[in-house]
């Protein structure tokens, strides 16, 4: 495998740096704001419903998430919450946009080991400006030959990315924590995928089982990709 | 000039299709929602202030604009508005995201005349998913060799775009309605720019005067670019 692959693309959120725990912390605080109306667990369910319903309209990222919290708050409180709640929720979103970037263990070490040997790409969903901010703050920008913020990560989106990179699928490997977004669509195109589980996954990204596939590498930690790709 | 240029990039909003009038219509409806608190003109000023303050955090696009309307509503009403206002404003934002794409006169004719002669690029700010939606709906997708949704349009952003396109500035022309975003930064890099005025411009994009510059082409209508580029 390692003789074929030329391009190694990395997911960013929860693969190179912390993301989902920040969203979950925000969600907990959001649920607490509505505890007079509904128990936290039920508010969470309502929020996920709003997010799922709006995904095609808002896409991924913090601004859409904030709008979903606001819509959920209105629905859950049946329009009876204090107007200050809107302000509180907007502030939760702003704080999420200002979170420091915390690199995951081994992320930089891996990029450092692979640079020069492979064309390294960052391929992530989310708000364009926010992902650019995080990349800049991460200090990892210099490792990447190409950065792509994608509106989705389905097979057709990867096809577009490969076209941009002028790369055929069997010279491409995607490394990421989401089976649904980083693994399955790439395998579908006959590319290679390396799955690095993260301890927590957004409900929308959860996927029942990891498939068996000759092009799939299962890692326990991101550092394990190095011996696969470099002798 | 026409012998040198290889890549012609087009701005999208208010260059190829209608955008600002939709925002202005939404803003009028937003101001009307707050008329019990402040006259429309003052609400507009407050909204522009919010947008300007948040630009670095939210970037461009409808989701950030909606969050700015919500923040402004809270401030203008001093937290005394009915909670339904939040719901009304979120709905205004959703409607803006669902507006049909209305091509500007001559847009497709120009792309059709230039295709095959030049590499055509779409270079636009805004929400990633929303611009992709508009491009798809516009029917213009097939004309473009490359589509770039940018988080900003300053000289450094164009430099990145040129690098992606593997194009030097003096083989590049940008066509757009904003002197600030489509003309000045490109001239700064010694590229070419064609300015097509649109009848209305967002306050944030307004620029006092169009410069005199040998690399600048002033058009009254987008169709006038064709004789410049093709004999």
Write up what this structure looks like:
Two copies of one chain form a homodimer. Chain A is α/β, with parallel strands linked by helices. Chain A has helices spanning 20-33, 40-58, 62-76, 84-97, 107-114, 128-138, 155-165, 179-188, 225-229; strands at residues 7-10, 119-125, 146-150, 172-176, 192-195, 216-218. Chain A folds into two domains: 7-18 and 101-229, HAD superfamily/HAD-like (Rossmann fold); 20-97, DNA polymerase, domain 1, CATH 1.10.150. Helices cover 46% and strands 12% of the residues of chain A. A six-stranded parallel β-sheet of chain A has the order 3-2-1-4-5-6, with helices on both faces. The interface between A and B is large, with 38 and 38 residues.
* Tally of individual helices of chain A: 9
Tell me the count of domains of chain A: 2
Oligomer category: homodimer
> Structural class of the secondary elements of chain A?
alpha/beta
Share of residues in helices of chain A:
40-55%
> Separation of termini of chain A?
12 Å
Short description:
Chain A is α/β, with parallel strands linked by helices and 231 residues long. Chain A has 2 domains: 7-18 and 101-229, Rossmann fold (3-Layer(aba) Sandwich); 20-97, Putative phosphatase, domain 2 (DNA polymerase, domain 1), CATH 1.10.150.240. Chain A is built from 9 helices and 6 strands; from the N terminus they run E-H-H-H-H-H-E-H-E-H-E-H-E-E-H.
Features:
elongated, Rossmann fold, 231 residues, DNA polymerase, domain 1, alpha/beta, homodimer, 2 domains
What is the strand and helix layout of this fold?
Two copies of one chain form a homodimer.
Chain A: E1 7-10, H1 20-33, H2 40-58, H3 62-76, H4 84-97, H5 107-114, E2 119-125, H6 128-138, E3 146-150, H7 155-165, E4 172-176, H8 179-188, E5 192-195, E6 216-218, H9 225-229
Parallel strand pairs in A: 1-2, 1-4, 2-3, 4-5, 5-6
Helix pairs in contact in A: 1-2, 1-4, 2-3, 3-4
């Amino acid at each position: 495998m390692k003789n074929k692959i030329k391009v190694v693309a990395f997911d960013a959120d929860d693969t190179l740096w912390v993301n989902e725990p920040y969203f979950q912390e925000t969600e907990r605080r959001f649920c607490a704001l509505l505890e007079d109306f509904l128990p936290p667990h039920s508010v969470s369910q309502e929020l996920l419903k709003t997010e799922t319903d709006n995904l095609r309209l808002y896409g991924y990222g913090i601004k859409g998430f904030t709008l979903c919290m606001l819509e959920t708050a209105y629905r859950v409180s049946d329009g009876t919450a204090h107007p200050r709640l809107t302000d509180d929720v907007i502030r939760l979103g702003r704080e999420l946009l200002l979170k420091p970037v915390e690199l995951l263990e081994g992320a930089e070490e891996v990029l450092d080991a692979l640079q020069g040997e492979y064309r390294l790409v960052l391929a992530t969903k989310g708000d364009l400006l926010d992902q650019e901010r995080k990349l800049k703050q991460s200090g990892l920008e210099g490792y990447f030959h190409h950065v792509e913020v994608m509106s989705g990560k389905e097979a057709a989106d990867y096809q577009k990315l490969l076209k941009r990179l002028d790369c055929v699928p069997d010279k491409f490997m995607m490394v990421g924590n989401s089976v649904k977004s980083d693994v399955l669509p790439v395998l579908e195109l006959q590319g290679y995928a390396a799955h690095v589980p993260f301890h927590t996954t957004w409900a929308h990204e959860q996927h029942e089982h990891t498939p068996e596939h000759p092009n799939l590498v299962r890692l326990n930690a991101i550092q394990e990709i190095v011996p696969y790709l470099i002798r």
